[in-house]
Design brief:
mainly alpha, about 100 residues
Length: about 100
């Protein structure tokens, strides 16, 4: 996975709250409620990110990439889109 992130990291070791804990804290602090369609929203963000990654790959293919790792970063568009599809499928399967 050429894109930096927190995947595979033991969050607790670094004092980073789990997603549910973070969302709960945010909701408590802001007075908002967690949307019932949270997973659908996360899925949408995956698709949005996949589109950005596809653009990175296209710029690489066109020869005007802004980073030397554009091919490997852009190559993550499909796995990120698949992740979004899996999340969305699970969301609808549990409804």
């Amino acid at each position: 996975w050429p894109i930096g992130g927190l995947g595979g990291i033991d969050l607790a070791t670094f004092g980073i709250p789990a997603e549910d804990d973070l969302v709960q804290l945010f909701c408590h602090q802001t007075g908002y409620e967690k949307p019932a369609n949270w997973d659908a929203l996360i899925s949408f963000q995956c698709f949005r990110f996949a589109a950005i990654l596809q653009g990175v790959l296209k710029r690489h293919l066109d020869g005007n990439a802004s980073a030397s790792n554009a091919a490997s970063v852009g190559g993550q568009a499909v796995p990120v889109a698949v992740l979004g599809a899996d999340i969305l499928r699970n969301y609808f399967d549990t409804k």
